[in-house]
Amino acid sequence: MGTLFLYELKKLIRQKYLIFFIILLLGVNLFNIYLNYDELLSPQQYAKDGETFALTPLRLQMDRDFAGKITNEKLARLKAHRDAAEAIFNGEESDEPMYTPYPYSDMNFAGEIITEMQRLYTYHDTVIDAVLQKNGYLETQAKAVNDRYRQRQAELIEKTYAGRSLDSYYRVNAFETVFSYRLSALFLVLLGVYSAAFLFAGEKENGMLPLLKCTPKKRALFVAKTAAFFTFVLCVGILFFSADLLTFWLCLRPSGFFQTFYAIEGYMYSILNVNILTAYLLTSFLRVLGAFFIGCAVMLLSVLLPKAWHVFFCGVLLTAALMGMSLFTDGIFGALRFFDPVTLLISIRLFETFRVVNIFGYPVFMYAAALFGNLLFGSLSLTGTWLIYKRRRGYA
Amino acid sequence: MSIELTGIKKSYGKKEVLHGVDLSFGQGVFGLLGPNGAGKTTLMSIMTGLLEASAGDVKYGGVSVTDKKSEYLKKLGFLPQYPGYYKNYTAWEFLEYMSVLKGIKGNNRKQIDSLLEFVNLTDAAWQKLGAFSGGMLRRVGLAQTLLGEPEVIILDEPTAGLDPIERIRLRNLLSEIAVKRTVIIATHIVSDIEYIANEVILLFGGKVKAQGAPETLIAEAANKVWLVHALPEEVDEYVKKYKISNILSEENSFALRLVSEEKPCEAAVGVLPNLEDVFLWYSLRR
Predict the structure, then answer these.
(1) For residue A396, what pLDDT is reported?
(2) Which of A182, A236, A383, B162 could hold B166 in an S-S bridge, CB 3.0 to 4.6 Å?
(3) Cβ of B144 and A211 within 8 Å?
(4) What is the pLDDT of residues A194-228, one digit of tens each?
(5) Reduced to 3 states, what is the DSSP secondary structure of residue A339?
């Protein structure tokens, strides 16, 4: 089985066009990040008194100076710096050294860090109440004390958010851009669709299908093909998402990889109680799964259609349809999104706030429902592919 | 063990291409000879399990191959008419890949090396198949057919598209592999099997017209092959009227070798038939 798996993997990675597309799309992706999110590789330059300087690296220096555990001493220093900057801005004298040539910028930067520190410090007091209110629990509880589902929901909220606190300041908010970035996931899907298209249709095109069908190891071949395809998507996913992280780090210099995920302001209500790096690995893996499950559906097309290019175009259309379906959030189409791999491609949305579905009176997290639905989607696609491959006779 | 075909029929829609074929293959080389469209590839495909017969059964060692397909496939070596390959694999890699698919257990390196040596491709073992000539590819195809030392080898038009030297080379290889095996060669080229087949089956229009040793079939065509010297203006008439197996230009005339139940003209001289003449003679009797 191992040898067969390696040979199937070789078939995939030795395709010249596929390698070309991987390099091309990786380049386009990284250039897109640089073009739209760069603040540090080529920061905006300002001029004062005949000298040019960039504000962003100076802000970064300030962030570094105040990074780490939030203390009264740090807050006092920041407030003093802000007051000194304000005084200079108003034409008064001050011995406080400024980070930037503009006192107004120093005043703003210090003010922003103070506000962020206060948000982090008061996080514990606000988050559970906010989540309870968001889920309408408090109002419902007032009306119907005996609502078991609501009670279970409240228990889950307590369990999820209990004991949370934040006491350190880092440039974690820059991670929000990293988590919400989607182009690389789209490229991963396209590469997955392309490679899946060749899995069976490619065998028809190069005339190998009759030989393969005349061997007794059909099931082993099918498993090896599927495993090789998953490995390929996983490797390309690791390549793309690692490159994303590195490029974003170079462009935005976020810090605090080991801070808890909910320290990021945009994800303060997230249900994830893990650090930022783990959250990135988790959401990236789910995106890989999403691309793999779309690929499973394309495998089904690959065993049905005669030409790999036909399969690729149908696969792209299928992906577009699945993306369209993910836009529906209500009614029957809303329920279908649990079976839609695109839901996993934008996996961060599954974790960004407390969202549950009522399954037999029990609140189940959206990510669990989506994962289950997608496993079903992938299993059905693979079963269909296997049955057709096994039963189909002839040379096509 | 022998392969038995009983009442094999195959239809595509309303068109029946095989009309109840009954055949038996023991050890030795069998040449399945027929014109294009006679149903040879369809019959080979049914024997390999690639196609399902509309009626009839294929048995190997008395057991229906549909009941023990996996076991049967382990004993089968097949070279299709247009064998595929992976241009990015080397010859060695391709054979290793196929050996795994054929379920060959244990150390298959020795076997791959000896098969590459047998088909005279040892020096090209680590070259990519994309760089191989048609003849080299066909030899790699033959080597994969022999992986696992199969008891039954089915070759569909094995010399198609090969130049004369490669054709002879492949034919010699085929006669070497035939020992203690059942080798079935489907072809429309008589010379492919003329000297190596123990038995020849003539298939016309989806029906078996004759089956027997080449000498027996040739003997049946005795007194039916003639040599006629014809003037240029007479050639057209002979071509229209008879099956001509050969036309040789002479000084002021043409020497025609033709097949006919009766003597075509007074000056005609009876000659000894060959397998090609037999093929023509049976095509006359369709």
Answers:
(1) 59
(2) B162
(3) yes
(4) 999 999 999 999 889 988 988 888 899 999 999 99
(5) helix
DSSP letter string, A363-379: EEEHHHHHHHHHHHHHH
Tokens for A148, please give them.
């078991």
Residue showing tokens 């220093």: A77
Question: Which residues make Cβ contacts (< 8 Å) with residue A127, sequence separation at least 6?
Answer: A161, A164, A262, A268, A269
Judging by DSSP bridges, how do beta strands B76-79 and A51-54 pair with one another?
unpaired
User: How is chain A split among helix, strand and coil, in percent rounded to 5?
Assistant: 70, 5, 20
- What pLDDT score does A297 carry? 96
Taking contacts as CB-CB distances below 8 angstroms, the residues of chain B near A216 are 69-71, 73-74, 101-103
| C-alpha distance from A394 to closest chain B C-alpha (Å) | 5
Write down all domains in chain B, each with its CATH number in brackets.
3-214 (3.40.50.300), 219-284 (3.30.70)
pTM for the model stands at 0.87
What is the complex's ipTM, to 2 decimals?
Answer: 0.83
How high is the pLDDT of residue B196? Answer: 84
DSSP annotation of A96: P
User: Cβ of A216 and B98 within 8 Å?
Assistant: no
Q: Which two tokens stand for residue B44?
A: 């080979």
Task: Name the residue of chain B whose CA is nearest to A2's CA.
Answer: B100
3-state helix, strand, coil in chain B (%, to 5): 35, 30, 35
What's the pLDDT band for A368 if we cut at 50, 70, 90? very high
φ/ψ (deg, to 5) at B43: -65, -45
> Which tens digit of pLDDT belongs to each residue from B45-78?
999 988 989 999 999 988 898 888 888 998 999 9
CB contact under 8 A, B97 and A209: no
Check: CB of residue B99 under 8 Å from CB of residue B148: yes
DSSP codes, A29-43? HHHHHHHHH-SSSSP
Task: Give the chain B residue whose CA is nearest to the CA of A13.
Answer: B88
Q: pLDDT digits over A49-107, tens only?
A: 777 777 788 888 889 999 999 999 999 999 999 988 888 888 888 788 888 888 888 88
- Closest CB to B100: pick one of A3, A15, A210: A3
Q: Which residues is B30 bridged to in the sheet?
A: B184, B199
Tokens 């139940």 locate to B261
Q: In angstroms, rounded to a whole number, what is the distance separating the alpha carbons of residues A22 and A96?
A: 52
Query: Quick one: average pLDDT of A245-263?
Result: 93
Given the DSSP bridges, would you call strands B55-60 and B3-12 parallel, antiparallel or unpaired?
A: antiparallel
Q: Do A10 and B89 touch (CB under 8 A)?
A: yes
Is the model's pLDDT at A135 over the cut of 80? no
For chain B, list residues with pLDDT below 50. Answer: none
* Run of H or E including B79: strand B76-79
For the cut 90, the answer to whether the pLDDT of residue A295 exceeds it is yes
Q: Cα(first)–Cα(last) distance of chain B, in Å?
A: 32
Nearest neighbour of A393 by CB, restricted to B51, B85, B144: B51
The answer to whether B41 and B186 are in contact (CB under 8 A) is yes
- Which residue in this structure is represented by tokens 């009626």? B55
Q: What's the one-letter identity of residue B203?
A: L
Cβ-based contacts under 8 A for chains A and B: 84
